[in-house]
Amino acid sequence: MNTGTVKWFNIHHAYGYITPDEGGPEVAVYYDSVVGTEDRILHEGQRVEYNQTLQEFRPVAEQVRPI
After folding, report:
1. Model's pTM, two decimal places?
2. Per-residue pLDDT for 36 more than 90?
């Protein structure tokens, strides 16, 4: 599992970005990948853990959980 900080998350468009702790490019996060919260909303500055995958040649977070 990777860890990072939510850079921003737009509830109206259902996606945002995570800044990884280990550096590297920002990781996209989508509403349907958020688990562990009833409303699936992430907040700017919130710490999260996630599994990183590649989709269409860009990093995407899966199974995102607040920590």
Report:
1. 0.93
2. no
